[in-house]
Design goal:
The complex is a heterodimer of chains A (118) and B (114). By secondary structure, chain A is mostly beta strands. Chain A has no helices and 12 strands. Chain B is mostly beta strands and 114 residues long. Chain B has no helices and 11 strands. In chain B, a hairpin with a 2-residue loop joins strand 5 and strand 6. Chain B starts with a strand and ends with a strand. The chains are: A mainly beta (118), B mainly beta (114). Chains A and B meet through strand 6, strand 10 and strand 11 of A and strand 4, strand 5 and strand 9 of B.
Chain lengths: 118, 114
């Protein structure tokens, strides 16, 4: 079974600064997908960014980018030019690409609460 | 754009009662799933389906039942509610199973068992 670990329960950053959220995972699979989801106080789950394990190039979506280190099983999220609207819980998640393996679904970390200081 | 629709949004149950959380998607998605979110935790997979007539267990399936008679609907049944099932429940869907397709989530259903 896969596990996802987010070691930072809470992070704080000044508005307009850059912050990096950490995520590590454990798997024996070679093909999989990694995601970062944002959950504001409304509890809506919003996809921020995704990464295919077979792609070496790090994914980027506007102010959001990842540092994917497959050998180290690390998948950190960098938020540039932080905005007040970025304040939320951020969850790292793993999804297998192997239909012959276990259950299909997202395995989540426990989340990082991101606070934006004005 | 309806996306993934869950009902009810809030529910209070007494211990031992049964109920069904409804989930519907209008995106013709093959894959549907249910998660629960407890305080201080990420979401955990309860049950999932990779197509009509096919369901399987996730990480925390005990006390829950599902069926998938149509592509659109994936209800979650609590057979005999227990206080430990107090949680926020999310239904989610994606175009394909075991893929990098975006998984879309419903808005959540807050369930309290007293």
């Amino acid at each position: 079974a896969q596990t996802v670990t987010q070691s930072q329960p809470e992070m704080s950053v000044q508005e307009a600064e850059t912050v990096t959220l950490s995520c590590t995972y454990d798997t024996s699979e070679s093909d999989y997908y990694l995601f970062w989801y944002k959950q504001p106080p409304s509890r809506q789950m919003i996809l921020v960014i995704r990464q295919e394990a077979y792609k070496q190039q790090n994914a980027t979506e506007n102010r959001f980018s990842v540092n994917f280190q497959k050998a180290a099983k690390s998948f950190s999220l960098k938020i540039s030019d932080s905005q007040l609207g970025d304040a939320a819980m951020y969850f790292c998640a793993y999804r297998s690409a192997d239909s012959g393996g276990g259950a299909d679904g997202l395995t989540f970390g426990k989340g990082t609460h991101l606070i934006i200081q004005p | 754009n309806a996306g993934v629709t869950q009902t009810p949004k809030f529910q209070v149950l007494k211990t031992g009662q049964s109920m069904t959380l409804q989930c519907a998607q209008d995106m013709n998605h093959e894959y549907m799933s249910w998660y629960r979110q407890d305080p201080g935790m990420g979401l955990r997979l309860i049950h999932y389906s990779v197509g009509a007539g096919i369901t399987d267990q996730g990480e925390v399936p005990n006390g829950y039942n599902v069926s998938r008679s149509t592509t659109e609907d994936f209800p979650l049944r609590l057979l005999s509610a227990a206080p430990s099932q107090t949680s926020v429940y999310f239904c989610a869907s994606s175009y394909r199973a075991y893929s990098g397709n975006t998984i879309y989530f419903g808005e959540g259903s807050w369930l309290t068992v007293v």
